[in-house]
Amino acid sequence: QVQLVESGGGLVQAGGSLRLSCAASGSIASINVMGWYRQVPGKQRELAAVISTGGTTNYADSVRGRFTISRDNAKNTVYLEMNSLKPEDTAIYYCVSFGRSTYWGQGTQVTVSS
Fold first, then answer.
1. 15 Cβ partners below 8 Å, 6+ apart?
2. What is the pLDDT of residues 60-110, one digit of tens each?
């Protein structure tokens, strides 16, 4: 079992920045990839950014160049630095870990006002 605890998020004006954190605990040795997905009510959950244990990253086209994902393996924590935020970035952001199994965090709301 892996437990994921998210922090950060909140309300910000367009053009602003936010930082999300996700701390993993439990069977962390089984984790290969960690990252963030986001979901707007009524739509499917979609990739924002993921990062492997080795540091390989993958970003959605919609966030590339504005968001930066990083990972502190010593702290078992992944971060998402979000800059130049747009109203369309408004969503619930979920931390996810991929390994022998997939685990999700509880989600954190990000709201960007215009």
1. 84, 85
2. 999 999 999 999 989 999 999 999 999 999 999 999 999 999 999 999 999
DSSP H or E segment with residue 109: strand 108-113
38-76: buried (b, 16+ CB within 10 Å) or exposed (e) per residue?
beeeeeeeebbbbbeeeeebebeeebeeebbbebeeeeb
Output the CA torsion 69→18→113→51 (10° steps).
10
Q: Are 11 and 91 in contact (CB under 8 A)?
A: no
Query: How many helices (H) and strands (E) in the chain?
Result: 0, 11
Main-chain dihedrals φ then ψ at residue 30, nearest 5 degrees: -85, -5
Amino acid (one-letter) located at 67: F
